[in-house]
Design brief:
The protein is built from 13 helices and 17 strands. By secondary structure, the protein is an alpha/beta fold. The protein has a domain of 237 residues: NAD(P)-binding Rossmann-like Domain (Rossmann fold, 3-Layer(aba) Sandwich). A ten-stranded mixed sheet has the order 3-2-1-4-5-6-10-15-14-16, sandwiched between helices. β5, α6 and β6 form a beta-alpha-beta unit. α3 runs parallel beside α5 and α9 crosses α12. The termini are far apart.
Length: 342
């Protein structure tokens, strides 16, 4: 898939970018070049010195911001595939800095589309979030707008040949913005209670590798215009708290602005254009056309179908989440694990 190809990842120094690039180097050693595009020079320095990346001649680090279209034009020169992971993702920060969120998540998306078409990039996959489905906060709204822009980019591209698709998934266990490190920090401070916004709350949880594998699947099978949605398990926030601190009582503190009880991945409005596959769903701009063209190989879902973290058929147990957190801890902090063992 990447044989002799040049790949660029926006937001390449983030959690997704580092894991994705590492998996590409391991799984597709025939890749010719990987460009790490991000705006923080210190994070690029840190990443370039990690053992899995240090001295690799295939890696190129390119400073820039997706808000800067001219810089993207320069970075995309000679690039075949783009994975767009750069975004402002913190819900509270986006609520109080709405113009900044729009500049990065919406205008930045438009700049990526324009630069990809003008530079002759063949494929672009943009990362989305469950918060983009029926959004109630600004972050979700900007990501929904971004999703729509990338899907429409296939029309905008015309005969240029650049194809755009989107991959949507839920919370990544262990990522900086998830509730897991938030709870772990409180536990380390010996708090007497863990704050739970609403005891009914559920969330999707997955490992980063699962999200990356869907990106690989999208890049391999996309025609352009698809929105790929990963099937992933749910968990109740109260069970997550019990997993991390079974002896600390919980206190319900009230739902915050912009939060949902259950996160949605596919709404009933999208159901008429949705196909179910073995481990994911695909939402097409026009399902009838996709079926007529032979692009839709799965099973259409029911007209009233919804996929959200509260009606999921797959649930994580407390023991399964404990194993997942322990596995992530071993991968992220191997030196600490070795120190504990000693």
């Amino acid at each position: 898939m990447f044989s002799g190809k040049s790949l660029l990842v926006t937001g390449g120094t983030g959690s997704f970018g580092k894991k994705f690039i590492n998996m590409v180097l391991k799984t597709y050693p025939e890749v010719e070049r990987i460009v790490v595009f991000s705006r923080d020079e210190f994070k690029q320095f840190e990443m370039s010195n990690l053992p899995q990346f240090a001295g690799n001649p295939k890696l190129r680090f390119f400073l820039g911001d997706t808000r800067d279209k001219e810089r993207l034009m320069r970075a995309f020169n000679g690039v075949d595939v783009v994975v767009h992971a750069a975004a402002l993702k913190q819900v509270p920060a986006c609520e109080v800095n709405p113009f900044e969120a729009v500049k990065t998540n919406v205008i930045g998306a438009q700049n990526v589309i324009d630069a990809a078409i003008d530079r002759g990039v063949k494929k672009v996959v943009a990362l989305s979030t469950d918060k983009a489905c029926s959004p109630i906060n600004l972050y979700g709204a900007t990501k929904l707008c971004s999703d729509k822009l990338f899907i429409a980019g296939n029309i905008y591209s015309g005969t240029a040949g650049t194809r755009f698709s989107v991959v949507r998934y839920g919370n990544v266990a262990g990522s900086r913005g998830s509730v897991i490190p938030f709870f772990q920090n409180l536990i380390s401070q010996n708090v007497r209670e863990l704050p739970i916004t609403d005891f009914r709350m559920t969330r999707f949880w997955l490992k980063l590798e699962s999200a990356i594998n869907l990106v690989f699947k999208a890049l391999e099978t996309m025609y352009g215009g698809e929105l790929f949605v990963k099937k992933i398990p749910s968990m109740r926030i109260t069970d997550l708290a019990k997993c991390l601190a079974p002896h600390i009582p919980m206190k319900e503190v009230g739902i915050r602005p912009g939060e949902k009880i259950h996160e949605m991945m596919i709404s009933s409005e999208d159901a008429r254009n949705t196909i179910e596959m073995d481990d994911h769903y695909v939402i097409y701009p026009d399902l009838n056309k996709a079926i007529a063209d032979g692009r839709a190989h799965g099973k259409p879902v029911a007209n009233d179908f919804e996929y959200h973290s509260g009606n999921n058929s797959e649930w994580l147990t407390i023991d399964q989440m404990a194993e997942l957190i322990d596995e992530i801890d071993r991968e992220t902090h191997p030196h600490l694990r070795l120190a504990k063992a000693a």
